[in-house]
Amino acid sequence: MTVAATLAVVLLGAQAALAPLPSDRTTPHEPPVAERGRGQFAFLGRSADGPYRWDPCEPITYQVNLTHAPPGALDDVREAIRRVSEATGIRFVDGGTTTRTADMQLGRAFRGRTSDEPRYYPLLIDWVPHERFVYLADTRRAFAFGMPYRGQGSEARVYVSGLVAIDAGEDLEPGFGNRFSQGVVLMHELGHVMGLDHVASPFEIMWSPDVSDSPLPDPFQTRWGPGDLQGLRLLGAAAGCASP
Q: Has residue 208 been placed in a domain?
């Protein structure tokens, strides 16, 4: 689930004059073309240059707050990240664990405040106590989004940070055993971080009842659907570097 659009708009405006992350550019590995067939995908935002996305020529560093996470959470994060990396061709860097919280990430507009902190915080994955989660979002289980800044030209709308917040009170089943297990929920939320929106097709991991009148999807689907793969590919290495 995504946090309310107004929150994303407010945070977007906070990034107006900031410089990009220090460069650690690489040549991304382009993933295989998604299988042909019926598929559905949507992007969270677009500019004149295309969908909002990360620069696939720079690695994405992520950190995990395990303070309120259940056993096995870190393994699920790493596997979900691996699946996103495989689908996009973007390299992810494990930045270790952190005590930084979703509140801190949101409250500081994803920016470091001192010379000892990075310009932008790494992507944060945080299990939030239930009473705090319901204060942050009007949704169930989880919310997530990437954080863009206002650049110029080809650098406009490039994601530089992000957040996945999971309701620690949901007691999700660990692993990737079914569509609503913790690992697959992480895949869905990381799809939002990369720039994918909800779709109506029940054959996609990005399916949501918020936009669909279709019957419930296969509860045992645990892999990306054809549309998921097409969308992630277009947000990844196949689209080329997002800045010069």
A: yes
